[in-house]
Amino acid sequence: MTGVVTGCGVLSAAGDSVTDLLAAVRAGSLVGTDVRGRFEEPLPAAEAPAIADFDVRRLLGRKGTSFLDRATALAMVACGRALADGELTVDDDNRRRVGVVLGTTTGSLKSTMDFSRDTLVQEKPYLVNPVLFPNTVMNCASGQAAIRYGLRGVNATLAGGPLGFLYALRYALNAIRRGYADALLVGGVEEYTPNTAWAADLTGDGPAGEAAAVYLLRRPDAAAAGTPRAEVLAVATGFHPDDPAEGLAGCARRALATAHVRAGDVWAVAGGDPDPDTLRGVVPAAVERLPVRPALGDCQAATGALALGALLGRYAEDPAPHGRPALITGRSRDGGVAVAVVRGWRRAGDHHG
Amino acid sequence: MNRVVVTGLGPVSGIGIGVDEFTAGLRSGRSAAAPIRSFDATGFPHRYAGEVPAFRPEAVLRRLRIADWGRSALFAAAAARLAVTDAGLPLPAADPGRTGAVIGTTSGESTVVEQLVAELVDGGYPAMSAEALRQAPAERLAYAVSAELGLAGESVTLATACSASNYAIGYAYDLLCSGEADVMVAGGADSVCRWAHAGFFRLGALTERQCRPFDRDRSGILTGEGGAALVLETLDHARARGARIYAEVLGYGVNCDAHHMVAPNEDSVAACMRLAQENAGVKPADVDYISTHGTGTPANDLCEARAIRAVFGDHVPPVSSIKSMLGHTMGAASGFGAIATTLAIRHGFLPPTINWANPDPELSWIDPVPNTARPATVRVAQNNGFAFGGNNAITIFGAIR
């Protein structure tokens, strides 16, 4: 069984639509937002691929939002947009069958480090603010999104760094196949903070980016209510520290076999990695490549989610790839590899924008 | 659909490292509670935790370079190494791509993050060490297991807080059931850290020296740590290699409170029990024992006991909380619960709830197996796990038929 994507909610430095996202990915130059003045702490650069003008109170209201960290707030907004875009109304009849599955790296690193710092710098080590304690757990965003939208079904957070979204997508597909859920908000979220900015800078992974992208994934038979944008056919993962390129190729072959898709039919490869040789020898040489990192920086667990967004943008604008399969790839420094096989459609009305 | 069985156990805990020590610890009601050594607890009013001071990763691990990994990853990898050794699993696997790891955690590499915090307090953000930054991502808990054992299959870390091991066991069970893998190492790991100790203290949820679940005067959790791993494999795979089988994984359930980030929800917990039992194909009357979440806070134990009564009615089986012995090992907690449950089935005993002195009149239907392990025939057992974020996950194990 596959999962059908009927809605999406994207927040990125390039804008809040898959069209904006695609345009930036295609242009391939780093999207810069002025981040001076955003934090008291110094930053490694004046500009970064961070989301501009995100006002949590305007988007989510004042009630219950003052203690949310940025990653959680971004995820909540993206989840709400994906639900609305997918036209899924959550009520007492279905809320136990609707859930949230998000990818992350460390949750909100800033929330955790600020909280931990208080144990060192306050007069007493226990003088932390207990209201902020839930922000230190990595499942904070998925838990808060469930509360806001009343989603009592499968709720999970996968820590996967650059593979976070692809792990979440595979976990969600399993939950749908096993009959545990009818609809899942699946996404990746990462915030831009001094912590992530310096971490990326100091490890040579920079510049740090920021994004939240969430998709409404439904059982195919339950999807009749919404017009599908795309279908997730298969996700395969593996661990190959000694030969990640061959590991990724093996992963792609397994995913394609599971999806019953011939490698020669793949028209696009999207992902973080700008390496033009990724999966060379597996997919056709003329395949279209959509790497998100050159434009949007290191968005860690949101990277794969942005790649899916860019693909949705392509399916929407161009009738040529209609119904044809594309791959989303991911690779981590430690040897984790993952590949998703998706196919999308141009929907009636997509040409309007 | 494949049947799934438990063939190896790897506990790295404050009451014992390795299955023999751990079993002896459960049977004798050993306590891990001791003054904190992991960090300088000066200034904290409560200074006890359930640590694993005897943990020597170099004594267990064969492949990992210890300096490359954080404490939680080392707990996970050591637990996994002990579990595959206990299982007699031949490594490298004939098909490494069909063997994988799923590890749950609450705070990931918390001690690495706290090292970074100390560096930035001293010298600002640019003073953070690149090596510690590379060790901080939580995905490395599962990667440590895969690297230590040479596994090429799925390697995933589930960060669903204090029920994360049950999530991991459930997901591994699915991958085996559906034929995507032959063998999965599943469990969880976490390390004692300052921020969790401070956070639970400020929530009023931290006890001073003893964790006393289901006691009238229970006063909270003890923070704890460790690594818990189980080798799960398809029944066919286990039989083909002549493996010793501890128990069968019958099924699991997950749901979400969608109510409050910290406070548990009775209706949702009861709903999760029903989901798990339905998935496992068992009825409440079939369940001989419940390894509870049993944190020892007034709120959790009351909520959990009421949810149990709602599901089991007048036939509530004996329950116990091994957190009375281990402390709250966070993301590893339901992994230790799964190991204890498996041992209860295999050896025919119920682990006790230690430090129990006074019955709680509000929990009259609860038999917490007070203080002393009890011989019992356990055919089906339920292992509860709840978490911040309302992430409930319950696994169910049964005697092999």
Automatic annotation (TrEMBL), chain A:
Every Beta-ketoacyl synthase-like N-terminal domain range: 4-194
SUPFAM superfamilies per UniProt: Thiolase-like
Pfam family, one: ketoacyl-synt
Keywords on record: Acyltransferase, Transferase
Gene3D superfamilies linked: 3.40.47.10
Enzyme nomenclature, EC number: 2.3.1.41
Database matches in InterPro entries: Beta-ketoacyl_synthase, Ketoacyl_synth_N, Thiolase-like
EC class of the enzyme, as a word: transferase
Cellular location(s): Cytoplasm
Reactions mediated catalytically: (3Z)-decenoyl-[ACP] + malonyl-[ACP] + H(+) = 3-oxo-(5Z)-dodecenoyl-[ACP] + holo-[ACP] + CO2; a fatty acyl-[ACP] + malonyl-[ACP] + H(+) = a 3-oxoacyl-[ACP] + holo-[ACP] + CO2
Record flagged with keyword Amino-acid biosynthesis: no
The keyword Nuclease appears for this protein: no
UniProt subunit comment: Homodimer.
Protein's recorded name: 3-oxoacyl-[acyl-carrier-protein] synthase 1
Species assigned in the record: Micromonospora globbae
TrEMBL record, chain B:
Domain of life: Bacteria
Single GO biological process annotation from the record: fatty acid biosynthetic process
Keywords: Transferase
GO MF annotation list: 3-oxoacyl-[acyl-carrier-protein] synthase activity
CDD domains: KAS_I_II
GO cellular component, one term: cytosol
UniProt key word Ion transport: no
SMART domains per UniProt: PKS_KS
Domain Ketosynthase family 3 (KS3), residue spans: 1-399
PROSITE patterns linked: KS3_1, KS3_2
InterPro entries in the record: Beta-ketoacyl_synthase, Ketoacyl_synth_AS, Ketoacyl_synth_C, Ketoacyl_synth_N, PKS_Beta-ketoAc_synthase_dom, Thiolase-like
Family to which this protein belongs: Belongs to the thiolase-like superfamily. Beta-ketoacyl-ACP synthases family.
Name of the protein described by the UniProt record: Beta-ketoacyl-[acyl-carrier-protein] synthase family protein
Taxonomic source organism: Micromonospora globbae
